[in-house]
Task: structure prediction
Amino acid sequence: MKSTENKIIHPLENAGVPEDQRHLYCDASPRPYPALNKYVERFLNWARANSLWILGYGTGCGAIELRPLLTSRFDISQYGMNPRPTPRQSSVFIIGGYLSVKTLKRVIRSYEQMQNPKFVVGLGSCTVNGGMYWDSYNTVNRLDYYLPVDVYVAGCMPRPEAIIAGFEKLKSTIMAGQAEGANEYAERFDWYKSNQKKIIKDWDMPDYNW
Amino acid sequence: MNSLIKRLKMQFDVEEQTQRSNLSFINATALQLPALLTHLRDYEKYTQLIFLTAVDRIEDNQFQLTYMLADESSQNNIGVRVRIDRENAVMTSIAHLWHHARTYQQELREMFGIDFPGSPGVNDNFILEGWEEIPPMRRDFDTREYSEKTYFPRPGRSTTHPRTAMKAVDPDYPELPLMKGRVK
Result:
């Protein structure tokens, strides 16, 4: 494994948390993890693609189609996917529907707590371009300005068949070794963070919520 | 319902508009509102506050507040409408009459900038966090302009709105009087 230890990572300011609590939080920004040996990585990608554990985030209407997907009608566990209760155990983050500024803040916290490698699936037109709420004062238009998105599933709302097709796309992307969202987030961390802070005005959490 | 309006008119200076046999609206002044609501709750069995909402009457430079009450035994509803000044938007809190009114008042404080002094937690964040503009439900707030300025709009959006889509088919399609009355 190539070492990235030598790379100078400037410590995060964590200006959002009170000064007497800053020592409690991590001040290192995330770093990218390069691929291992080609054959090992191929095996790992095969394993990753066939046990996708889901963290569902559904305050928007797009998430209503996740219920038939997870239950007996479409039964997503037959594809090796399983909903998990906590970000620490999940590898796929499903953003179901629109995000407001308030929910985006919680989504960022959850995403940063997930372990590498991690993938993001955006459900519905709202995550693509704001959908029917594009001119609202409170709806985030483009999810990929705040989190690295691997697969978008368009539709208002997408049917479970479309979501399954999206997961198949995600699986083939992982198998091909192109689902590098977590590394992209680490490499362009400053850009993502400046976009996030541009719209989240009261940033009262650490800069990196690990 | 009619007898109720008659009884109210004997005690309060109100105008009424009846919409259905079980739904009436009365216009009252802001000063007599607490007495009127207390009377309706304690003597006329309108014990339930269904909602409290506001309308921005920007042409009159006023906010219109609507307090909707229900009588569960007779299934009658009555709405009490109050106009208050838009520039100095302050209204008496009714959180002592219905505890859940504090939530409505907190929302109106955030969305319209109407203050309810003494209402518990009225200045806390409700939905918006760290909002710096004028309250977003005021009609002089341009939500589209704010969205385009703030949220990185994705280029390439097309519309099928009749105003533009029908122009391509029929050049004589009339311009719709949209945005009429909107104050920039």
